[in-house]
Amino acid sequence: MSSLPKGLPQPMPGKPGTDAEGWERREHLTKSESEMLLDWLEANGYSQKEVLLAEDGSFIVRWRH
Fold it and tell me: What is this structure's pTM?
């Protein structure tokens, strides 16, 4: 499992989950939190990333390196 690199400021507390396809994810994010995480992923070289809208109206951000 590739997690967010150690030593870099983490955009959000806690550990990401991992999907069956190898995508890591954070769930139950606000719009602002998802934008912050997507910006962080972009700035740190993560080219594969996506955002999904959950049924409860929160956001899910998925990524893999």
Answer: 0.73
